[in-house]
Specification:
By secondary structure, the chain is mainly alpha-helical. The protein is built from 17 helices and 2 strands. It has a two-stranded antiparallel ribbon.
Length: about 350
């Protein structure tokens, strides 16, 4: 598979690398989606109900598409990328189910979170079911090295979740601890997705390492942008979907950096809003004003841009192709969401 001319045209006419990635991976994604629906089945009725509820809610499915694109970078892929991509998506959805329970979230992808419909216990157990299915799909692919990559990712992601939980509402959280959290919680799955994809495409050694680095740096950029968007992004638009991290007490980079330089009054204003479910637009606007005063949102966005550039630099190890250029465009697209 190579990137289609239609995909190239979409980048030029719409400026959306995501649309182009969807087009470029459409054939394989048909097989991935069929596998996802098949593996969500169970004789226990509530299992497919919850799994399909989350899957049908949408989402960009960026991670499995990255797996597929990575598999085709060097030519014809083995076919195992379909199993790998489906496993990556199941792992992602499992973490969403678990996250919503841990964070006590009420909404997910514009719908009531599964835990609000079926309860916390069922959500956690179905998340475990999805993880189990992910590993079964990896075993069926018959590649121990790829299974090791995703198994390691699952363990690291769980560690990142625990570390984030331990730091919730902690004003002493450091920049380094934050990067450790997002490196484990978000970037690790991006890294695993592109690495196993490259393995399905026959990459080894430096080429495999380059694709793993691309995924890791892209994941860091992606999470930094998400954390900036919770405070309205670059234009400061504070809509109904902003402020969730603040209310949940999540220590993200804009707040961590602001607390490190804020005056006593400013610091107290941030702490009064942090971790309080009742914090509304007034409190969020005050925190945003403090963040802007000290330029910490700007710093967060600049860090995201730097990681996106690092992701593109990693691709230099790969032969120059349209698909490689598309993955570079994806890195730019992930950062462009903040503007």
């Amino acid at each position: 598979m190579t990137i289609s001319q239609l995909a190239t045209d979409k980048i030029e006419s719409e400026g959306s690398a995501l649309d182009a990635l969807i087009e470029a991976t459409a054939e394989d994604m048909t097989a991935v989606n069929a596998m996802i629906l098949s593996r969500a089945e169970s004789h226990v009725e509530i299992v497919p109900e919850i799994a399909r509820y989350l899957i049908d809610a949408g989402g960009k499915r960026l991670r499995p598409m990255l797996t597929l694109a990575s598999a085709h970078l060097l030519g014809d892929a083995s076919g195992k990328q379909v199993n790998y991509a489906a496993a990556v998506e199941f792992m992602h959805n499992a973490t969403l189910l678990h996250d919503d329970v841990v964070d006590e979230s009420d909404m997910r992808r514009g719908k009531p979170a599964a835990r609000k419909v079926w309860g916390n216990q069922a959500s956690v157990l179905v998340g475990d079911f999805l993880l189990g299915q992910a590993f079964l799909m990896m075993v069926e692919a018959g590649e121990l090295d790829a299974l090791e990559v995703l198994s390691k990712a699952a363990a690291v992601i769980a560690e990142g979740e625990v570390l984030q939980l331990s730091k919730a509402g902690d004003p002493g959280t450091t920049d380094a601890e934050y990067m450790q959290i997002i490196g484990a919680k978000t970037a690790m799955l991006f890294e695993a997705a592109t690495e196993v994809g490259a393995m399905a495409g026959g990459a080894s050694g430096k080429l495999r390492e380059a694709m793993a680095e691309y995924g890791r740096e892209l994941g860091l950029a992606f999470q930094l942008v998400d954390d900036a968007l919770d405070y309205g992004g670059a234009d400061g638009s504070l809509g109904k979907n902003t402020g969730d991290d603040l209310r949940e007490g999540k220590m993200t980079l804009p707040v961590i950096l602001a607390l490190s330089v804020a005056s006593g009054i400013e610091r107290q204003a941030v702490l009064d809003a942090l971790g309080h479910a009742e914090s509304g637009q007034t409190e969020l606007a005050k925190v945003r004003e403090i963040i802007d005063r000290h330029g910490t949102l700007k710093t967060t966005i600049e860090r995201a841009e730097a990681h996106a550039e690092a992701a593109k630099a990693a691709l230099a190890a790969l032969p120059p192709t349209e698909l490689r250029d598309l993955l570079a465009d994806v890195a730019d697209f992930c950062v462009s969401r903040v503007y």
